[in-house]
Amino acid sequence: MLTKEKPTSLSVEKLKLSIVRHLRTTLASNEHVASQNTWWQATCFALNEEIFENAWSTFKQTRLDHCARTVNYLSLEFLIGRLTTNNLINLGLEDKVRQALNELGQDINAISGEERDPSLGNGGLGRLAACFMDSLVTLEYPAVGYGLHYQYGLFRQGIKNGEQVEYPDNWRDYGYPFEVCRSSFALDIPLYGHVETYYQGDTMRKRWVPSQYLRGVPWDIPVVGFEVKNVNTLRLWECRAVNEFDLNQFNQGCFASALHEKVKAESVTQVLYPNDESEMGKELRLIQQYFLCACSVRDIINRHKEHFASLDNLCDTNVMQLNDTHPAIAIPELMRILLDEEGIEWDKAWKISQRCFAYTNHTLLPEALETWPVDLIAKVLPRHIEIINEINYLFLSQVVEKQWPGDQEKLIKLSIFEEGYPRQVRMANLSVIGSYKVNGVAKLHTQLVKSDLFPEFDALFPDRLVNVTNGVTPRRWLRQCNPALAQLISANIGPQWQKDLSLLAGVEKYATDKKFVQQYADIKLANKQKLANYIKDNLAIDVSTEAIFDVQIKRLHEYKRQHLNLLHILTLYRRLLADPNYDMHSRVFIFAAKAAPGYRLAKDIIYAINKVAAVINSDERIKGKIKVVFLPDYSVTLAELIIPAADVSEQISTAGKEASGTGNMKLGLNGALTLGTLDGANVEIAEEVGDEHAFIFGLTVDQVNALKASGYRPQDYIAQNDELKAVVDWLCGDKFTPEEPGRLSSIAHSLVQGGDPYLVLADFAAYVEAQAQLDKAYRNRTAWLHSTILNTARLGKFSSDRSIEDYVRDIWHLKKVSVK
Ligand code: GPW
C-alpha cells in the first residue's frame, strides 16, 4: 500500500454508482454504449464530487483562519500535464477506482490515457509552476495559481521528412472535466485611451480613461493535495469581448466586421506564445501579460475586501510571486489602483505595493531579459507608463543618487528605461525595484545574479537577493511515473518519503543489498522495455534494452547544446566505420525537444538529428551499436515515459547559461547518472550525489569567461583535433543529406564562422572523454547499479516540497491551514 487512506466516504461501490450516474445523467450515455473517452469523463466527474467539496472547505478554512496569508503565484505558464492519475494518487483513490472500473469492465490505464495534456507552458518555467502548486497544497499552504486559459496550448510537434512541423493544440476541444467556469467572478479590464488630470479639493489626481474593455472569465482547476484534504485553486483567465457581436451589421451581411470585436478580444487568450527564453516585443503578448495581471490583482483585492475595508494591510493577507518578469506589469497595476482608485498617497502606496511583490529570476540570457518599447506601453497602458516613470524618478533620485552621487554610469545602468531608439522599459529592473525579495533558482545561478546581472542592486539592497534552489514534485516524478520503483522504495523504507523526500537517504543502505539491487535493476529494465516498445510502435526503430539509454530531453536551444551531443554521436559513428571492432557498449541516444517556430538554427539541429538518425540506424556495418531516436512532440506525458527508462541524463549546457534545470533532478531521482557541466543545479546534484557518481566535464563559469575575454577562436579547436574537424566537415557535405548537399551546414557555420557563441568546440574534447569514461563505467555492472541507486538515495534535496519550505521561510512567511 503506497498511499494512506484519506478520510473519504468513497467506497468502491459508491464510486461505481457515481461513475455510472455521470455516464447517464451528465454525459447522456450509459455503460453499454459509452466510448472510452466518455468513461474517462465520467470517472473525472466522480472524482470531482470529492475534489470540489474539499476545495470549498479549503477556501472557507482559510477565511476562518483570519484570512491566512496566501501566496498568489502569477505565471504566464502552468505546464500541469495530465491530471487524472495525479488526482487519483493524491486523493488516495487509485486502488479503489482501479477496482471500480475493473468491475465495470474498464481498464484504468486506458481510461486515464484518454486525457490530453494541458500544455499551457513551454518548458522548465511552466513545469516548475505546476510542481510548486502540487507542493503548496500538499504542505497545506494557502495558495492560488493565476494564469491564462489558452484555447491552444504549446503547438503539437510532428516530424515530416526530418523537419519539425507545428500543429495547433486544441487541448480542451470539447471541454475538460477538471475545470469549472466561475462566471460570477468575471471582471472587465481596461485598455488604451488616455489619462486625465483633475482636482479633488486641492490635490491633483489622475484617472485613466480607457477606450476599450476586455472581459476576464475565470476557469478554476482544482489542485489536489497528497494525503491531505486541502484542495487549492489554479485560476486561469479567459478573455472575451464585453459586447456581443453587432447584430445590425450581421443582418446587413457584414459578417466579418460584425464579429470583429469578439474575434479580437478572444485572440488575447487564444494561444500560448511558443518562444521559450526569448522576448518578442509583440503588442498581443503585452496585452496577454497585462490581462493576466489586471484580472489577478483585481481578484486578490476583491477577496481581501470581503474582510477588510482598506488595502493598508493587503500585504498581510497576500503575497504575489512573479514567475520571471512576464507578470511584472502587476506592479504598476497595483500602484494605479492604490493611487487612483483608493486615493492613497504615493509613499504609502509604494510601501504597500512593494511589500506585496516578490520576483523570481529564471535566466541570465540577455535575449530572454524582457524589455518593452516605451511607446507601446504608453499606447496600451497610458497610466502605467506614467507610474513607471515616477517609480524610476524616485528610485534614481532618492536611492541611486544618494549611494553614488554624480555617478552617471550607475544611473544609466540602473534606470528602468534603456535609452536608445526605441526607448525601452527593462522589466527586470522594474521587478527588482518593485519587490521586497528577488530570488535565483539554484546556488550558482543566484551567485551569478548577484555578481553579473544585478551587482549594483545587490549593493543597494543587500538582503533582497536570495537563493531558492528549484525542486520537482516526487508525487508525479517518482510515484506516478515510476510506480514500480516507488513501490520498491516504500516496501523498504516505508511510504513517508513521498511527503518528505529527504527520507530517501534511507535507501542508501540498500545500495549494497543484493536482493534490492536486483529488484532495482529489474525495474529499470522493465521501464526500458516499455520505452523500447513505444519507440518501435511509433518510429519503427528497434532498440535493445541491453544498450545504454542516453537521454537529452528539453527545449531545443543553442545554449543547451544538443549539437554537442550530435557531434559526439558522429564521432562514435566515424570510429565504428573506421574500425568495426571499435570497443564500445551499445548506446541508444534519445532526444526529445521542441524548437520555437521562428528559431531557424534550433529547427536545423532537429533536422540534423533526424537525418543523422536515419543514416546511422540503417547502417548495418555498425551492427546496431548506435541508435539515434528523436521522439516527436515532447510533453509532460512523454517525459513520464522516458525518465524512468533513462540510464544517462545529458545536462550539457555552457556553464553559466542554464539557470537551474529541473529535468536533471527528475532523471537523477529515477536513477540516471548525470553527464553534465558545472551549470545550474548540476553543481548541487554533483555535490549531493558525490563526484564519483556523476560525470562532470567541461569549462567552468570562470573558465568560460576567461576564454571569452582572451578572444575565443573556435578554428583553433578544429585545427588541433582531427576527429572534430572530420565531423564538422561531415555537416558541410552531403553525407547525411545526399539529396540536398550542405543542408546541415548552418550548424557548422554557427560553430566556426559564427564564432561558436556557446563554446561547443571548446568543450568537445572534454565531452568525448567524459563519454568514454561513462562507457567504461557502464560495463562495470555492479558499480553502475550502485551509483544509480545512490542517485535515487541522495537527491532528496530536490523535492519541490523543500523549495516551497525555503520560499515560505525566506520570502512568503505563510502559515499552514489544515482542512479537517
Ligand atoms: F527566460 N526557463 C524557462 F527565464 O523554461 F523566463 N523558460 C523561460 O522563459 C525562462 C526560464 C526565462 C527555465 C530555465 O531555463 C531553467 O534553467 C530553470 O530550471 C527553469 O526555468 C525553472 O526555474
Structure keywords:
alpha/beta; Rossmann fold; 3 domains; ten-stranded mixed β-sheet; 23 strands; binds ligand GPW; carbohydrate metabolism; Pyridoxal_P_attach_site; Glycg_phsphrylas; transferase
Report on this structure.
The chain is of the alpha/beta class. It folds into 3 domains: 10-64 and 82-116, no CATH class; 66-78 and 125-241 and 251-470, Glycogen Phosphorylase B (Rossmann fold); 527-792, Glycogen Phosphorylase B (Rossmann fold). Helix content is 48%, strand content 14%. The chain has 34 helices and 23 strands. The strands form 5 sheets. Strands 1, 2, 5, 6, 9, 10, 11, 12, 16 and 17 form a 10-stranded mixed β-sheet that branches. A 6-stranded parallel β-sheet has the order 20-19-18-21-22-23, sandwiched between helices. A 3-stranded antiparallel β-sheet has the order 13-15-14. A hairpin with a 5-residue loop joins strand 14 (417-418) and strand 15. Helix 23 packs parallel to helix 24 (600-617) and helix 30 (722-732) packs across helix 31. The protein is globular. 50% of the residues are buried. The structure holds ligand GPW. Ligand GPW binds next to helix 6.
